[in-house]
Amino acid sequence: MATHLIDDDKEEHSIAVLEVHHDSMPEELRGLSEEELKAIEKKLVRKADLVILPVMGILYILNYIDRQNLGAAKIQGIMVDLNMTTDQFATAVSILFVGYLPFQIPSNLLISRLSRPGLYICCACAIWGCISACTAAVHSYSALLAVRVILGAVESAFFPGAIYLLSAWYTKNELGKRIGGLYVGQQVGNAFGGLIAAGCLKLDGRMGLSGWRWLFIIEGAATVGIALLSALILPEYPYNARLLTPLERKVAVWRLEKEAGAAEGSETVGTWAGFLQSFKDPKLYLLIFCNMMSQTQGSIANFFPTIVKTLGYNSILTLVLTAPPYIFAGFYYMGLTALSDKTGKIYLFIMINIGLAICTYIVPMATLSVPGRYVAMIFMPCTSVGPQLLLYKTINHHMPRPLAKRAATIALMNSIGGTSNIWASYLWFAGPRYFAAFGTCGYLWIRLGADDSVIAAAVAFAITITGYLLYVRHENKLLDGTPEQVDKVKGRGVTTEQVDMGWRYEGY
Asked: Which residues form the Major facilitator superfamily (MFS) profile domain (predicted)?
């Protein structure tokens, strides 16, 4: 009897959800069959994939090339030319985040209010290309620091803005692979950054300029040119995209509203109100800490040429050897996000990545064998960044609305979590084993005494993300409970529209 009552409740709930979806459907779409809607949806997603993803991927390649080329410049002699110590170089690397981190939040709040976010991103890209090229003109350590701070401030517009723009086009089951594609651009940037740097090293002495100065000039100029061309191509939101027909725009907006209760162009919550709502959501703080752990590991990218240099090869071959690990990482990310999208699981793959990270960082601390160390280096980029993809996917699954809240949450998680890049830069000393760096950045060894160590950071990440899993599962139980229990959940970040449409936390 009880089972029949539960089944009846579920059936009534499903009917109510369908009615909500139909009521929210635009009048122009109600005469279309399900097959026609699916055909239109497939066509507009294909258009987005063919235009948005390539452009954003190329811009992300440029973003990472311009941000990480200081590591390649170290191999080419920038420390000697500017009379820098190891600590000063670490400061030059980390100070970029002094500009990069705080400006992400206002930038993403601004982009959530703009009708042309694509143009905003492309303009920022062109500006940082100019600033990066200006690095070639510095002749002192203090001038380098100034340029790096400004570069970080301008680059802050790109990544959280890109994640936000992608989430404005794709549903939660489509987004994972697209974020993976964006991260492929990051790894291609890292890979080609090393190859470009190797080529620029051969220009050393031309026109009286060092090879590292040519590196900044060439990469900065390329960024400006490509950014200006991208501004003519990159579409805006679905509701005002010129590459879509009027009917496709309606379908693009409706399919997002159907999933999360609202979409860009139909939101009623203001920017400031949405920003404040993010601080009332306990999930934000758990995700920030998890991202801080992942970003700590990601600091490896700032020093990867230096890590590969410990294999003992010359500067050109060292830069060439940095490419294969990043290329492998690109395939790894696509496989990771595709599996996550297909299975609907997020937590499982985060835990697998943590386990892989632990295994990867044991090797360079345990052996000086060149083959063994390089095999470990091949896995470093993918294990360092893998959890980040899934954390951003989590935000778009679990905090889709209001739009300003989603934009603020993305920026807060990336900016506050990214503070670990500042102090992690000072851990890269005492090579080739780099106990302090690999021990902390790899979530593995935290030295507590003479020879004692524990898997402290790994346990911290695993415990936190497991706590997050238990929290959202508890919230799902309340959403299936009494009206009073549902009201409690609504007070912690779930909107009335989401409750009405039967929304639940997924992936955990």
From this structure: 52-475
Cα 26 to Cα 15, 171, 186, distances in angstroms: 19, 18, 38
Q: What is the CATH number of the domain that holds 343?
A: 1.20.1250.20
Supply angle C-alpha 299, 446, 91, rounded to 5.
35
**pLDDT in the model for residue 267:** 55
SS (HEC) of 19-33: HHHHHHCCHHHCCCC
Classify residue 90: in a domain, yes or no: yes
- Domain membership flag for residue 250: yes
Q: CA torsion, points 444, 381, 125, 422, in degrees to nearest 10?
A: 20
In a domain? residue 201:
yes
Least Cα distance to 282 among 494, 493, 479, 487 occurs for 493
List, for residues 329-374, the tens digit of each pLDDT value: 888 888 888 898 888 899 999 999 888 887 887 788 788 888 888 9
| C-alpha–C-alpha distance, residues 502 and 488, integer Å | 16
Cα separation of 153 and 236, whole Å?
A: 23
Contact at 8 Å (CB) between 277 and 399?
no
Residue 445 φ then ψ, to 5°: -105, 115
> Both ends of the chain: CA-CA distance in Å?
31
Residue 359: inside a domain: yes
| Domain that includes residue 447, residue range | 37-261+269-500
Q: What is the pLDDT of residue 124?
A: 94
Q: State whether residue 269 is helix, strand or coil.
A: coil
* Cβ neighbours of 378 (radius 10 Å): 17
How far is 480 from 241, CA to CA, in rounded Å? 38
pLDDT means per 10 residues in the chain (508 residues)?
44 44 68 86 91 89 80 83 88 85 85 85 94 92 93 89 86 81 75 74 82 89 93 86 88 80 54 78 90 79 80 82 85 88 90 84 82 87 84 83 76 81 70 68 40 52 90 91 86 78 85
Contact 434, 307 (CB under 8 A): yes
269 phi-psi bin (left φ>0, alpha ψ -120 to 50, beta other):
beta
DSSP letters of 434-451?
Answer: -HHHHHHHTT-EEE-SSS
How many CB atoms within 10 Å of residue 209?
Answer: 15
Cis previous bond, 432, omega within 30: yes
* Total tally of structural domains belonging to the chain: 1
- Whole-structure pTM value: 0.71
Q: 323-343 and 370-398 are packed helices; what angle lies between their axes, rounded to 10 degrees? A: 40
